[in-house]
């Protein structure tokens, strides 16, 4: 780090309390003209769980990347375990006892569990890799994180996200784990899987591990954390004991303004509206069976189901990314056969996929290139790009979706997660959609960005766009949708209008056909 200040190891205080395990003093970081962290001072103690909150772009991930050695601060000091540190590589932090489990997991899918656990440090015997020792070591590590059911010889790509996450935490236990940094750890987990993670966090806490929990789920913060820290625009806004805060206070501190958390439910869609998209007896993807649903012009229809119910498969089929095995589709009363995403876009059907990093953004491309990618062909004349038309699409998308960037030529990977998501929405809107398909549109974004996405969806519906969106959050569906279709094991279990919304009934319907799946 540049301009580092030397700080002596802290001694016990006058009352005998032990010094912090980890202290940050005056941490600053800027990327070009944009200040990401501005003089952060924080302490973290052994055996506590600390929630780190803030809107996207607040500086949370950058701060944790500095702690874990992935990013160098421009100024300031990291004091860990009584010594000032200057990590030059994440491996140094890992060996010292700091592990960072990222929201986008970093395991190698083509390798086995044991190979991932011992990557870079294979067990060797007489110059040969000792497979037996690796397997036994893997079993010991997995058992410590309550994941003894995972086969050390299984390929990582075949595991559920929750199990992949357990492997990454198990890998952290290879060293003497002292600090565990978790970035949105439950964003892709079911409620049951999240509870298993919380149990593991509690176990690690009793062992004296300091756990920093980055999350946008405020209820989780209140249930799991001992303290909560709020960042906004790179500055420390507050740090409180969990008993001294509440949901409304946290939201106000994150946003710097009041945000309505309880939005009135939308009304049922008027029966007289024309059907924009009709799905009849659809079977596809080896999972969907006999799916029937209608989405009317100006309707926001939620799509709910448990993991593996077929929500993503349905949206991808409607977008032409998966082949139709049986059934028919109609768009504004005319046959609709989306044999490819290009054909779907030509008909005004567009998809915002789940997982913006893996399936959405064009890495290493600019914000402008990402937003206009869906309209390059329509904006060309005689083989040449119509740059004026592209600029109109770009400006409209930036304005309508409130994408915050200091330069449209900026690499999209430099934007916060929320602004990346809004840029992808701007790409969807550039085609002038008749049908907007959204797969977990608020996944991993903060409450302020969620508010903007909700407002945008409502605006589009008011303009007559038919919106079909999948969400694993029942309350999100209830506050945003005119109705919800519940999928269970690839089939429609039930449809509820807004006036019939009941979270217990909606979730209950998602289990309807699971017994048949197990049989």
UniProtKB/TrEMBL annotation:
Annotated InterPro entries: AAA+_ATPase, ABC_carbohydrate_import_ATPase, ABC_transporter-like_ATP-bd, ABC_transporter-like_CS, P-loop_NTPase
Coiled-coil region(s): none
Protein name: Sugar ABC transporter ATP-binding protein
SUPFAM superfamilies from the UniProt entry: P-loop containing nucleoside triphosphate hydrolases
Domain ABC transporter stretches: 22-258, 264-514
Molecular function in Gene Ontology: ATP binding; ATP hydrolysis activity
Highest taxon listed in the record's lineage: Bacteria
Signal peptide: none
PROSITE patterns named in the record: ABC_TRANSPORTER_1, ABC_TRANSPORTER_2
Keywords (A to Z) from UniProt: ATP-binding, Cell inner membrane, Cell membrane, Membrane, Nucleotide-binding, Repeat, Sugar transport, Translocase, Transport
């Amino acid at each position: 780090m540049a301009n580092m200040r030397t700080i002596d190891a802290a001694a016990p205080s006058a009352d005998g309390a032990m010094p912090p395990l980890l202290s940050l003093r005056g941490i600053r970081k800027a990327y070009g003209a944009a200040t990401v962290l501005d003089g952060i001072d924080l302490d973290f103690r052994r055996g506590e769980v600390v929630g780190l909150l803030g809107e996207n772009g607040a500086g949370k991930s950058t701060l944790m990347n500095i702690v874990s050695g992935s990013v160098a601060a421009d100024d300031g000091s990291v004091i860990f375990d009584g010594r000032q540190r200057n990590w030059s590589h994440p491996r140094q932090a890992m060996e010292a006892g700091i592990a960072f489990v990222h929201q986008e997991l970093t395991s190698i899918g083509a390798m086995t569990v044991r190979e991932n656990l011992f990557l870079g440090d294979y067990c060797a015997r007489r110059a040969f890799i000792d497979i037996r020792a690796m397997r036994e070591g893997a079993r010991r590590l997995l058992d410590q994180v309550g994941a003894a059911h995972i086969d050390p010889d299984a390929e990582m790509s075949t595991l559920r996200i929750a199990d992949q996450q357990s492997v990454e935490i198990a890998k952290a236990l290879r060293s003497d784990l002292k600090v565990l940094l978790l970035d949105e750890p439950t964003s892709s987990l079911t409620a049951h899987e999240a509870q298993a993670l919380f149990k593991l966090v509690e176990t690690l806490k009793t062992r004296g591990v300091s756990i920093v929990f980055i999350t946008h789920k405020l209820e989780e913060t209140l249930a799991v954390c001992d303290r909560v820290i709020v960042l906004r625009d790179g500055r420390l806004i507050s740090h409180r004991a969990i008993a001294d805060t509440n949901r409304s206070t946290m939201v106000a501190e994150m946003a710097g303004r009041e945000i309505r958390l309880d939005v009135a439910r939308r009304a049922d869609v008027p029966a007289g509206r024309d059907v924009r998209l009709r799905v009849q007896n659809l079977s596809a993807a080896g999972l969907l069976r006999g799916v029937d649903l209608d989405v009317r012009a100006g309707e926001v229809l939620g799509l709910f189901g448990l993991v593996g119910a077929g929500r993503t498969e349905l949206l991808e089929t409607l977008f032409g990314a998966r082949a139709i095995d049986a059934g028919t589709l109609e768009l504004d009363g005319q046959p609709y056969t989306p044999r490819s995403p290009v054909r779907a876009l030509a008909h005004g059907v567009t998809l915002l996929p789940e997982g913006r990093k893996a399936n959405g953004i064009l890495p290493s491309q600019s914000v402008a290139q990402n937003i206009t990618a869906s309209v390059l062909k329509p904006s060309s004349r005689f083989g040449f790009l119509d740059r004026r038309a592209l600029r109109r699409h770009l400006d409209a998308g930036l304005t309508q979706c409130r994408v915050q960037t200091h330069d449209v030529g900026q690499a999209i990977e430099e934007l916060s997660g929320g602004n990346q998501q809004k840029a992808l929405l701007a790409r969807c809107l550039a085609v002038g959609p008749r049908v907007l398909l959204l797969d977990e549109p608020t996944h991993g974004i903060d409450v302020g960005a969620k508010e903007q996405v909700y407002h945008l969806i409502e605006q589009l519906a008011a303009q007559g766009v038919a919106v079909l969106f999948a969400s694993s959050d029942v309350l999100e569906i209830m506050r945003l949708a005119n109705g919800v279709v519940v999928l269970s094991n690839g089939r429609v279990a039930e449809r509820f209008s807004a006036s019939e919304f009941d979270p217990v009934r909606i979730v209950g319907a998602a289990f309807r056909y699971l017994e048949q799946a197990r049989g």
